[in-house]
Specification:
alpha/beta, 2 domains, seven-stranded mixed beta sheet, single chain, Rossmann fold, 9 helices, six-stranded parallel beta sheet, Immunoglobulin-like
Length: 353
């Protein structure tokens, strides 16, 4: 007997199907939105999304007359995905045929034998959308150091997920008013300068729809560019909303699989579940974690983040004794830099600090 899909998925599919039909009748056409992927000498992970866009975007309702810095946040969430459509991914001379998922996303690992370290490009296309180049950050298989960073409240002050403030910051606040956490860009630049060729990958529960804003934000504030592993709002096969915690844990496991030689420096904040997620990952895969660095939110930021001035219970109490890997804390990037300077000078197997 065939089981029925979760009602939220059926509603989401119904709405998407009818929106796509209506927009196609208005002349909207398919377009590839490339995301930055990553890989090694042996494989690359290609990421992107197939959406519908107006054929004349510069004149459509005047939406594109504002400068990027004056865009309201709600525009970042207006997307018309094209689900379950055939696409072609070309990596070098090899082509792979696949189908977008229910959200129009493209996420595929492709084997490659070419040695091509650095920022490279693959091609994604459909029978309607022209070939679009998608960037891929290819890391030397000999690299042993990498950086994984959260985004919300780690490099970007968002005050998420308290409902009112999340709505205000994400949908109404102009991009130019979004604040960077002091010292974090300097910290990341220094760490990557000290480890040439090391990757930086941002893992966040934020929506893929906000990627254009995040790219502009990082460029404006001097953060190193790197692949982002975001998620998608909406229902799953079992619930109305996706679990951000599950998304982060799964992303960390995938990175450990894809980069078996790298020991990661994990950087997050104590406003939500980063300490617990990182410690669990280090406990399960201690050979893949160099250290954990946690930005400590102020009492006001804690209140805005989850409604209490105290650190979340699992973040405060979940700790293995002795610590599996070195852990440091600080209020901003400059404080973390001072602590990390001491920790990263020690041997990888040293658990002190």
């Amino acid at each position: 007997m065939k089981s029925r899909q979760f009602v939220g998925v059926r509603i989401d599919d119904f709405v998407t199907r009818h929106v796509v039909r209506a927009l196609r009748r208005r002349g909207w056409r398919e377009a590839i939105v490339p995301f930055t992927g990553y890989g090694t000498d042996e494989h690359v992970r290609v990421l992107g999304r197939l959406t519908l866009r107006p054929s004349k975007p510069k004149t459509y309702l005047g939406m594109y007359t504002e400068t990027f810095l004056q865009r309201r946040g709600w525009r970042n969430f207006v997307t018309a995905p094209v689900p379950r459509r055939p696409v072609t991914v070309k990596v070098g001379d090899d082509e792979l045929e696949l189908v977008t998922d229910a959200g129009g996303y493209i996420d595929v690992n492709v084997r490659t034998s070419a040695s091509m370290h650095g920022l490279k490009y693959v091609t994604i296309s459909t029978d309607e959308a022209p070939p679009t180049r998608a960037p891929v950050r290819v890391v030397d298989s000999a690299q042993e150091f990498g950086l994984i960073s959260d985004i919300d409240d780690t490099i970007l002050s968002t005050w998420i997920p308290r409902l009112f403030l999340a709505v205000w910051n994400s949908f109404f606040l102009t991009e130019g008013n979004r604040l960077a956490v002091p010292g974090m860009a300097r910290l990341y630049q220094r760490l990557l300068a000290e480890h040439p060729g090391a990757p930086i990958i941002y893992v966040s529960t934020g929506s893929w729809n906000t990627l254009p804003f995040l790219n502009r934000f990082m460029k404006r504030h001097g953060f190193p560019r790197g692949p982002m592993l975001l998620t998608d709002f909406g229902p799953t096969q079992t619930r109305w909303f996706r679990s951000g915690r599950e998304h982060k844990s799964r992303a960390l496991a995938e990175l450990a699989r894809d980069f078996p030689n790298i020991k990661w420096l994990l950087i997050g904040d104590d406003g939500q579940h980063d300490p617990a997620i990182y410690r669990e990952f280090a406990e399960l895969r201690p050979g893949h974690v160099r250290a954990i660095a946690i930005r400590q939110l102020s009492a006001t930021e804690q209140m805005l983040a989850h409604g209490t001035v105290a650190v979340l219970k699992d973040s405060a109490e979940l700790r293995w004794e002795p610590p599996v890997v070195p852990e440091v804390t600080g209020a901003d990037g400059d404080e973390l830099a001072a602590e990390l300077k001491r920790v990263l000078r020690s041997r990888p197997g040293d658990r002190s600090g």
